[in-house]
Design brief:
- The protein is α+β, with helices and mostly antiparallel strands and 151 residues long.
- The protein has a single domain, classed as Butyryl-CoA Dehydrogenase, subunit A, domain 3 (Up-down Bundle), CATH 1.20.140.
- 66% of the residues lie in helices and 16% in strands.
- The chain has a 5-stranded antiparallel beta sheet with strand order 4-3-2-1-5, with no helix packed on it.
- Helix 1 runs antiparallel to helix 2, helix 1 runs antiparallel to helix 4 and helix 3 runs antiparallel to helix 4.
């Protein structure tokens, strides 16, 4: 289980999504005050202004799904399916983030300041998960070729 490179990829993807769920995503300025946009909500002067629990839920589901996929090492095809669903969840994270920013920006007249580290982590997790899918697929191909030789 822990001897395979795809296990390392999946564990790093889980850690990246965990980082995305607890670190700031985007910083804004609103009428001279600092607005911090995190996965749990939009904070104005360190007070919760708007809840965005859906982003937190998507990032936690993705993180847990990566960890769960590690333990399915005997069922490689199921591992591949879970990893593909995990990539879809991570893309959904970005789509929902874009929707919230699109809904929030024109109404509040926010001034963009900088991007946080949490926005970059799902891209890293997607890359790591795709690498894990490729390695799992290579293992499955190797096992199938060895089964052909036995017959």
């Amino acid at each position: 289980m822990l001897q395979r490179i795809q296990t390392l990829f999946l564990l790093l993807a889980a850690a990246a999504m965990l980082v995305a769920s607890v670190t700031p995503l985007v910083f804004f300025i609103y009428q001279g005050d600092r607005v911090v946009f995190e996965a749990m909500g939009v904070y104005l002067n360190s007070e919760l202004n708007d809840s965005t629990w859906g982003l937190f839920l998507l990032s936690m589901v993705s993180s847990v799904l990566s960890l769960l996929t590690v333990f399915l090492y005997k069922q490689r095809m199921l591992q591949i399916r879970f990893s593909i669903f995990n990539v879809v969840c991570m893309i959904g994270f970005y789509l929902y983030l874009g929707f919230i920013l699109y809904k929030l920006h024109p109404v509040e007249n926010l001034l963009f300041q900088k991007v946080g580290v949490g926005v970059i982590m799902p891209v890293i997790a997607i890359i790591l998960t795709v690498l894990a899918i490729r390695k799992i697929g290579a293992d499955e191909a190797l096992i199938r070729s060895l089964n052909r030789l036995r017959k």
